[in-house]
């Protein structure tokens, strides 16, 4: 089990490093290259450098909010059921 965890962790680390490098080159370094440069062909339009992370942030925060909300509702239902069982 330890080897597969290390492989998974290494894969995740390499993926994160690649995404960080790609996004940094796209959002920060690309404006310094001439628009006729061939390097612009490797990246989507610059407007997506803002839209994509914003979309991921909104979806992530919505997922966290949904999880917390559903957990609170489940806990309240459990507490209400315990009160009903005590009074019955």
TrEMBL record:
Q: Where in the cell is it found?
A: Endoplasmic reticulum membrane
Q: Which residue ranges traverse the bilayer?
A: 12-33, 53-73
Could you give a single Gene Ontology term from the biological process aspect? Answer: GPI anchor biosynthetic process
Identify the InterPro entries for this entry. Answer: DPM2 (IPR009914)
Annotated Gene Ontology cellular component terms:
dolichol-phosphate-mannose synthase complex; endoplasmic reticulum membrane
Q: Which UniProt keywords apply?
A: Endoplasmic reticulum, Membrane, Transmembrane, Transmembrane helix
* Superkingdom: Eukaryota
Q: Does the keyword Cell inner membrane apply?
A: no
Q: Which membrane topology term applies here?
A: Multi-pass membrane protein
The pathway where this protein functions is: Protein modification; protein glycosylation
Q: What is its main location?
A: endoplasmic reticulum
* GO MF term (any one): enzyme regulator activity
Q: How does it assemble?
A: Component of the dolichol-phosphate mannose (DPM) synthase complex.
**What family classification does the UniProt entry report for this protein?**
Belongs to the DPM2 family.
Q: What does this gene product do?
A: Regulatory subunit of the dolichol-phosphate mannose (DPM) synthase complex; essential for the ER localization.
Checking PANTHER family in the record gives: DOLICHOL PHOSPHATE-MANNOSE BIOSYNTHESIS REGULATORY PROTEIN
Q: What is this protein called?
A: Dolichol phosphate-mannose biosynthesis regulatory protein
Q: Which organism is it from?
A: Lentinula guzmanii
